[in-house]
Amino acid sequence: MTIRRPVRRLSAIFVALSITFTGVADAAPSAPGSTVTPENHRPRPNRVSGGWQWPVLPAPPPATRPDPKDTTTSPATTDAPLRTRTYPSAPGADPRRRTLVLYDTGGMYGWLGESYAVMAGNLVSHNSAWTMHPVRSYRAGEMSGYTSVIYIGSTPDEPLPKAFLDDVLKGGTPVAWMFDNIWRLAERSANFATRFGWRPGRVDTTEVTTVRYRDVDFTRDRAAIPSGIVRAGIEDADKARTVAEAVRSDGNRFPWIVRSKHLTYFGEVPFTYTGPDDRYLAAADVLARHADPTAPDRKRALVRIEDVGPDNDPAQLRAIADYLADRRVPFSVAVYPRYRDPHGVNNNGKPTDRTLVDAPKVVAALRYMQDKGGKLIMHGYTHQYRDTPNPHNGVSADDFEFYRVRVDDKGELHYVGPVPEDSRSWATSRLRAAKWEFWAAGFETPEIFEFPHYAGSAIDYTVVNDQFAARYDNGLYAAGWCHNGDCGSGTPDYSRIYGQSFPFLVRDVYGSVVIPESLGYVDLTQADDNRSRLPAQILATARRVAVVRDGVASFFYHPYLGTSRLGEVVDGIQEMGFTFASPADLNCCR
């Protein structure tokens, strides 16, 4: 997987890589007398901290309007038994809500359909349990057993069962339809435009880089332009309502989402080339409300103090705790319990290995943070991998722990795949070692886990789900892991991975309750590709998250930055009407 994007932009070209890595086992811990110099150690800014610089899903091929003379619209519904799996909703959702997610599987881009369905299902889990399977498997009357339906059209001329088209037209169950094959539905109805007040038109491939939703502008990556947006032509404004608008570079606008009666139509698949300020947030709100229009609307915020380990400066940790406590802002602290610098990058060439037990002043500072309202979460074991660069220097907090990544001579990140020894036993052993270090330092085992740099294999994610009440990160997913809608039954294809951030609490396909991190982090790095992310940019994203009902404005912050910029973000988020909460207040870990 190769990514070539400046920080905070999420666009990717999927490239299959076959690279073999070798490494050596973790070195034994250093003697108690070994030292770390916190003032010389700073978490290295890199393209993937915070999850925004992740691989994303590409767009499907342009939508294709069928030949009007084509009468082979769709096959008859099969009578074969349909086996489906229900994925539970996030805590607090209405248990009566159930959403059916249907997707395309045909053609060379067939793998995209299920990946899009996973993203849709993860989002609707905020308000609803859900099931997904290929649309080809749809059976007559099936949607009557659900409170909402989503169909994602990503393959031109996908064979759609006539029963599916007829059930959509029949009404009774709210249906959200995305992108392609909408013409099949219109052609199936003798009076579609008269009944719904709009008709599907041509595919618009003009430059649309903005989507306007609830009077707020969201970005749309230029990479999505060639795939186009199906224009919905509204003919009766009393029957059809524009929910969101596509805005051209010249200021002209046309419907991006249109709603009429029980049918909501998206002119494109909103899961492609996403970023922190993307139209994806608008789609997330529409889908969550589609799953449950009566769900509560709250404005909560979270702050996480990031990359805290035995190498941190205790005074900095205490200053952060004092500042947030004085403001009555609850917070969490992401802790890796073992610091490793196998090549002495930050210690004059002397290898360093230190645990929390070896850092009593850091332990005391962490207790102080707990007393001031901080909640400890586990941020991996060493936050690095063996004695080899992964991808930078092998130092804790700089490198990945559960996934192999490399950087080429152009500064491009390549997500290579799981570490060679990846297995349930390997992941379990690292979590067990981390838990032991917390226990040895006198702390209870954290209830929440955060993957270092938000990356792990499907195996790692399932192990974490088995051992923790929740994750606090963004998910990394691989095509192929879900087979015919049954996640975990397939084989992950790590050449086709994608990340997903969440603007609210969800329960994803790994089964984990996922506490959202929606804003990224303050990054003061100055580089020729403008990688810095200042408080103003964090707040700009927060203003877009505020549009999402029940959205959570969640960011993380490194303690070495001091408190002034932390205050800028906290003040700005509170001024938008958000109330800061502890992760446990999101109903995940009580």
Describe the overall structure.
The protein is an alpha/beta fold. The chain folds into 2 domains: 86-291, Class I glutamine amidotransferase (GATase) domain (Rossmann fold, 3-Layer(aba) Sandwich); 300-474 and 517-586, Glycoside hydrolase/deacetylase (TIM Barrel). 21% of the residues lie in helices and 25% in strands. The protein is built from 11 helices and 31 strands. The strands form 8 sheets. Strands 2-4-3-5-6-13-12-11-8-9 form a 10-stranded mixed β-sheet, with helices on one face. Strand 24 (482-483) and strand 25 (486-487) form a beta hairpin. Helix 6 packs parallel to helix 7 and helix 8 (424-440) crosses helix 9 (458-467). The longest helix has 17 residues, at 424-440. The chain starts with a strand and ends in a 10-residue tail after the last strand. It comes from Kibdelosporangium aridum. Keywords: Signal. Residues 71-81 have a biased composition (Low complexity).
Question: What is the gist of this entry?
Answer:
It contains eleven helices and 31 strands. The chain has a ten-stranded mixed sheet with strand order 2-4-3-5-6-13-12-11-8-9, covered by helices on one side. Strands 14, 15, 18, 29, 30 and 31 form a six-stranded parallel sheet that branches. Strands 21-22-28-27 form a four-stranded mixed sheet.
